[in-house]
Design brief:
This protein has about 950 residues and is α+β, with helices and mostly antiparallel strands. Helices cover about 30% and strands about 20% of the residues. Strand 3 and strand 4 form a beta hairpin.
Length: about 950
């Protein structure tokens, strides 16, 4: 019987659905294991072979854990909001929901063909009101919360209001945007509603504030840094500028220390942890106040090295800083304005990575509080507004960027460490003896001096001095910013917010969700409002508690709703909790479900989410943990980052000197050097097999090639190739549907894992897939005689060799799955099946174990063979086999026999042979005699299980 993969896979995919094989419920009698893939966005292009890599890796592990007796949750859903669907809607007028539904259906069709063990009954979509009900609920919860630094957790805002009513800001230790704000209880109680609302924005975890954003007028929305390259949007290439806007934000920074501490409790790679640590950017230092000369203006800088204040030779403000306008003189205004316009076109990411030196002098000077010296104030893009205070004191002798700036603009450089050479570059001042603090002939404030101290002593002394003198304070600072949480577009979660005469108020919780309204067009309004400004029915009736027509707005009982929508990460920040209890209409997740599943045990996804999703979801979970919604502090216990499958592109070579507009000439790869004007052109990989071009198919592929002529080698056109990112523009996208059609889903699954380690990036090469397909046919042939359709399985006693082959496989695959070394598992399968074939082993028990072992990797063929063996139920519920070490012991071992250190032949010996037995057997061997003939044996060196060397002369 032939291995008919098409019939087998179709049959079992239907069986799994009909019997709800992958449906999961909480079972307190079984240990749980929660496997999750990062939320996919359903693009219009569907899946290419790179996309399922992580899904297959996690699916193998999910199946393995189930076979080991675990109750496994392995859900799937869709991060369904996205700019592509909205841009398509703007172009065509088709509602993004229709486009998204079509894309989801395409994704689902492709995923089903690959045979994943997803529990589709738990599917969630971020664009479903039943789902984003809980996103809106969480936002309202954050709006009505503040972060208590003493309790180290979120608290209800009413508790803060009660404190303000009695004590004002006195005694408050809370996370806030501006920690210089202070007022008395009397002042608070005298405020009107609008003033109180504005004041509370300084403390709310979800708040509205002025912030610098990447504004793209062409797309009509704010973009994240990774959506902008060289001043234009990645999608559409529209100009992007830095702009200050009123935005909804989340006070992620309040959780900075907890986000850092949590990294010590989870099993993530060191590289991802380090990336998050750097992103959070904890630093301990000192805030010091500098006064602007001949002005009442003062500004604060944050420095981790207050001891270097004697070496400050200039100050630098971030271009976005409010102080720029306050300190810029009239004479410098035009030049400063011109520079600010230049910086607006650059994202923070570009400014951080680009090392070129730019800046402009403001015309003003600051007074160094330790020396009394007047130092120039500059503006430069290398200082960012969001870190510290947006102002720095520059110490060029001991900071590389300050040094480059000082050299470029010819500013003084004062070394502060004895023996420091700063003639060519800055000097690392982490240790040494301090000098020039103050310089010779100058005096520090109140005689303060650091000269002669070690760096460590100087840091401590300066912190103490500036604190005592009231010119500074010791502070812990974080680079982590609050998250901008609003977008000026249609296709996203609407905010459950209405504006009562300018005061943002929350729609009552029992009225959620607030659903997206219908609009006529999906682009911003002519007056520049977001697309929701086009909605005719987008107002909140506080009496009837419902959305009503805008015409009814009276600013008394009917008020306008917010026109912004939430960003892409809103819906993906707590979806793992919703999967635990997806049909619960009363709460995000029940306590029972949450305490059973607890957290994600294995999370699989790309490294590109290290500073986005993986920060936001951890923050979101910690907030929900504060209120007891999530019982675990960390959402994802173990993280595996799958690598990228790269494309293997093919090229044809156009010969310029022989080609005409209507008749191009292409030369085969190995003949291209015979011509001068040769241009490589990407060709669709489906027209190429084993790097040989299908010439007729190529001519039909594009009208411009229909009259093409070819210079062949050995009657064939050989294409060139290169490893590149898989993309439509390079014609190297391989559709998994094509692989499933030609080879089967099990072959696709095996090959994707066989390409290399899960975490590594590797090239796709369809030419290599035949090996995995042949392996499955070879496995099948252990059960069936292809020529006669004879069933080969028997109950004959397995040989020692067969027992060894299978138990060696059990041990290898078990260890490899635990270590995610799937590629070596597949090699082990190939070796074992080959050995069993040579041994003519068809023993039922041996083959049964092999079927269970292959089931996580190739579930369709495993299910079919499992049932052909007469087993009941699904192979998914079999018991994972255990190996017996006794079967793995070698009875014989092979050793190399050498003469004078030169290997001559190999010989088998009993595994327990003594040194004397090995020596005697070697000397008695016929093959030794020709080397010993006429020679004298000097000595025989025998190291059992290692070497045999006969020294002769």
């Amino acid at each position: 019987m032939d291995y008919n993969f098409r019939e087998i896979e179709k049959k079992w995919q239907k069986e799994w659905v009909d019997h709800q094989t992958y449906k999961v419920t909480e079972d307190p009698n079984r240990p749980k294991y929660y496997v999750l893939n990062m939320f996919p966005y359903p693009s219009g292009a569907g899946l290419h072979v790179g996309h399922p890599l992580g899904y297959i890796a996690s699916d193998i592990y999910a199946r393995y854990k189930r076979l080991n007796g675990f109750n496994v949750l392995n859900p799937m859903g869709y991060d369904a909001y996205g700019l592509p669907a909205e841009q398509y809607a703007i172009k065509t007028g088709q509602h993004p929901a229709i486009t998204t539904e079509q894309n989801i259906n395409r994704y689902r069709e492709q995923l089903d063909k690959i045979g994943f063990c997803f529990d589709w009954d738990r599917e969630v979509r971020t664009c479903d009101p039943h789902y984003y009900h809980w996103t809106q609920w969480a936002f309202e919860k954050m709006f009505n919360s503040y972060y208590d630094n003493d309790l180290k957790k979120a608290q209800p805002i009413d508790k803060l209001i009660a404190h303000l009513e009695k004590q004002g800001t006195e005694g408050l230790n809370v996370a806030q945007g501006d920690d210089t704000v202070s007022f008395t209880a009397e002042e608070w109680n005298a405020m009107d509603d609008k003033q109180k609302s504005d004041a509370l924005m300084n403390y709310r975890i979800a708040y509205k504030g002025e912030t610098m954003v990447n504004w793209c007028a062409g797309l009509g929305t704010v973009l994240a840094n990774d959506e902008v390259v060289e001043g234009v949007s990645v999608r559409g290439g529209f100009p992007v500028v830095q702009k200050k806007m009123s935005q909804w934000c989340l006070r992620v920074s309040a959780y900075a220390q907890r986000l850092l501490d949590g990294l010590d409790t989870i099993q993530w790679s060191d590289s991802i942890k380090e990336t998050q640590k750097n992103w959070i950017g904890r630093s301990e230092g000192t805030e010091v106040e500098f006064r602007v000369k001949d002005s009442d203006v003062k500004f604060t800088i944050f420095t981790t090295r207050a001891d270097t204040m004697f070496g400050v030779t200039f100050m630098v403000l971030a271009p976005e800083s409010d102080y720029v306008s306050q300190v810029t003189t009239e004479a410098q205004k035009a030049e400063v304005d011109k520079y600010i316009d230049y910086v607006k076109k650059r994202t923070e990411l570009e400014r951080m990575s680009d090392r070129k030196v730019t800046g402009v002098f403001t015309g003003s000077y600051a007074i160094n509080p330790l020396t009394g010296d007047a130092i120039p104030i500059w503006v430069s893009e290398y200082v960012l507004a969001g870190y510290g205070t947006g102002a720095i004191m520059a110490v060029p002798a001991h900071d590389s960027r300050d040094y480059a700036f000082a050299k470029h603009f010819n500013l003084p450089i004062i070394p502060l460490i004895e023996g420091a050479d700063v003639s060519e570059e800055s000097f690392d001042a982490k240790e040494g003896i301090v000098t020039n603090s103050p310089q010779q002939g100058k005096q520090g404030l109140d005689g303060f001096s650091l000269n002669g101290l070690t760096v460590k002593e100087a840091i401590a002394a300066t912190k103490k001095f500036v604190t005592e003198k009231g010119i500074g304070r010791v502070k812990v600072n974080y680079r982590l910013r609050d998250a901008i949480f609003s977008r000026q577009r249609y296709w996203g979660e609407p905010f459950p917010v209405y504006y009562d005469n300018g005061i943002p108020r929350m729609v009552p919780e029992e009225c959620l969700p607030i659903e997206l309204p219908e609009i006529s067009e999906y682009k911003p309004t002519e007056s520049g409002e977001p697309p929701l400004g086009r909605a005719k029915k987008w107002a909140w009736d506080t009496v009837n508690k419902q959305v009503v027509e805008n015409a009814k707005i009276d600013q008394k009982t009917v008020f306008p709703l917010d026109l912004y929508t939430m960003p892409g990460f809103a819906g993906s920040s707590a979806y793992y909790l919703r999967y635990m209890d997806p049909h619960n209409d009363e709460e995000l997740v029940s306590k029972k479900a949450d305490e059973y599943w607890r957290h994600v045990d294995l999370y699989v996804g790309g490294t590109e989410h290290a500073t986005g999703h993986l920060i936001y979801s951890r923050f979101w979970n910690k907030f929900l943990h504060d209120y007891g919604v999530s019982c675990e502090e960390e959402p994802f216990q173990k993280l595996i980052n799958q690598g990228m499958i790269q494309g293997r592109s093919n090229f044809v070579y156009r010969v310029g000197e022989l080609s005409t507009a209507d008749k191009p000439v292409f030369v085969s790869y190995n003949l291209r050097k015979n011509y001068k004007e040769v241009t490589p052109i990407h060709v669709w990989v489906n027209l190429v097999k084993n790097d040989i071009l299908d010439i007729e198919a190529f001519k039909q592929w594009s009208p411009e090639y229909k009259n093409a002529e070819f210079i062949l080698e050995d009657g064939k056109y050989v294409c060139g190739w290169a490893i590149e990112k898989m993309s439509k523009s390079m014609y190297n996208v391989v559709n998994p549907d094509d692989i499933v059609r030609d080879y089967g889903a099990d072959t696709l699954r095996l090959y994707e894992m066989f390409l290399g380690p899960v975490e590594a990036s590797k090239p796709w090469d369809t030419n290599g897939i035949d090996g995995c397909f042949r392996f499955l046919k070879k496995l099948w042939s252990l059960f069936w005689e292809n020529r006669t359709d004879k069933w080969l399985v028997d109950d004959a006693e397995p040989s020692k060799d067969s027992l060894k082959s299978v138990h060696k496989l059990i041990k290898k695959v078990t260890g490899d799955i635990e270590a995610f070394s799937y590629n070596t598992s597949i090699s082990a399968f190939m070796i074992c099946v080959s050995e069993l074939g040579q041994q003519k082993c068809h023993n039922r028990e041996m083959l049964r174990d092999v079927v269970i072992l292959i089931a996580p990797f190739a579930p369709h063929i495993a299910e079919e063979l499992w049932h052909q063996l007469g087993e009941k139920g699904s192979v998914c519920d079999a018991q994972w086999p255990k190996w017996n070490e006794a079967y793995l012991q070698d009875n014989e071992l092979q050793m190399t026999v050498s003469f004078n250190g030169k290997a001559r032949y190999q010989k088998m010996f009993p595994a327990d042979a003594s040194k004397d037995d090995i020596q005697q057997a070697t000397l008695d061997d016929e093959r030794s005699k020709k080397y010993l003939d006429g020679k004298q044996i000097v000595k025989v060196i025998v190291v059992p299980k290692k070497i045999i060397n006969i020294v002769i002369k």
